[in-house]
Amino acid sequence: KGATLSALRGSAYDWHGIPTLVTFDLSITMIDAAKVSEILWDIRLACRLHSSGSLEPEIGTYVYVDDFSKAVDSFKKYATEDKRIPLSVDLETIGLDPFKKATEETPAARIVSVSLTYETGFADVYYVPESGQIPEEVRLQLAWLCTSKTIKNQGANLKFDIVWLMHHWNIWITNQTFDTTIVGSLLDENRHNSLNNHAKIYTSMGGYDDPLNRKYDKSRFDLIPKDDLLPYAGGDTDACHR
Q1: Fewer beta carbons within 10 Å, N or C terminal of the chain?
Q2: How far is CA 114 from CA 68, 119, 237, in A?
Q3: Does the predicted model carry a pTM greater than 0.90?
Q4: Comparing C-alpha atoms, which of 100, 106, 92, 129 is closest to residue 224?
């Protein structure tokens, strides 16, 4: 009683002993095209519940690393200009403005973490020191990954990360080949083309970021405990890669 369809979506309810999910009537898409992606997500959830018995997303193996040497070694071993290998890159930051100065209320803008995925289901996450600066060796490793012609760099709204990397660490991504935000907008201009939405429609990871989204203020990634940040930061590049 008093429950709305929007509130009921995304959870399984017991109906005479049968786990039951609800979604919109398909006819709603005739007047609200944006509902298509929401219905697709509900269908994926139903398939997930049927195949696994759970609504929980598939989460990969994500680890904190001290540098990017493992990624560099992997690309140098397996990638060539004739056989370029995809790499997904993502940053977590304080705020959205890379040029923001510190105030009495808020700290200056800085990069909090860098995530890399070059194999489905895995992610390397580098947690940036509180100073916002990284050792020169680490910076050179990341710069190589962002410029090597053996790599196909991809991301979600990668222009955001490009500006931050250039302003804070003088790294310019020159090997970009794919952006989920751009491609998503070309495929369907009526839906919200966030990575969260794309993960729900196109991967088995849909909902990986919901726990952090519900619990924390994402304008202050520096205040999020590292254990809670890891599945989110690693999930961002894993979902983008998939």
Answers
A1: N
A2: 10, 16, 10
A3: yes
A4: 92
